[in-house]
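To whoever picks this up:

The parser on our side crashed when reading a file containing two proteins. I've narrowed it down to the boundary between the first structure block and the second sequence. Both blocks are reproduced below exactly, byte for byte. First block:
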Amino acid sequence: MKHYPAEFKADAVALYRSRPGATIKSVAGDLGVNTETLRNWIRAADGRRPGAHSAPPAAAQAGVDDVQVELAAARKRIRELEEERDILRKAARRPGISRQRRAGEPLPVR
């Protein structure tokens, strides 16, 4: 088994992370190391054990932040829609507005 210096491992991981469209396989091929070796270095740099398949904590946290932002936007939109609904309900209770017109039905023919 071949042993690589820690600096080389760190540089390999940094190279992989600096190329967003690159795959582990392509970077490993460019460096002349085994694909699984590079994958283990990346996992070790993320603080995970080599055989783990879970997302790194930083990526998981970023995903949680994205979900929180989306949830806040959805709640804001819900509040806006509820306010619009309440305004329309109050307007519909005003006298002089026929039920057929409120429901969008045609006026009765006499």
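<<boundary where parser fails>>
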Amino acid sequence: MNKRKFIFISGLIAISLITGCQTKEENFAGYWLQNSDKRPVSMYIKPDGSDFLVNINQLNFGRFSRDIEKGIYKGNGILTIGEKKQVKYSGDNDSLSDVDDETITFKRVTADQYKAASSH
């Protein structure tokens, strides 16, 4: 009987590992668009070894700017972009929000939506 329980529990653990629950840091990777009608920021966050590269696109004073910043995830649910900006991931609605101003939010978009928002 104990052997059956052991096999059952081992199977459950194996299934949970195989199904590949996303880690918190993996949740940040992807294409993001700020929820704003006026000059939304678009970001492409991609893994770069143990860190991330963050492509940031924004229209500023009639000029479209593109920057690439380093993103660092320290296991606290927050991604630090550059040295100052911090965003946290919400699994409830698959979104990012600015740590300092929670009214600044980003929704996950497709690569095509990102390209459309970033092509200026």
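After patching the parser it read the second block fine. The longest strand covers residues 63-73. Residues 11-20 have pLDDT under 50 and may be disordered.
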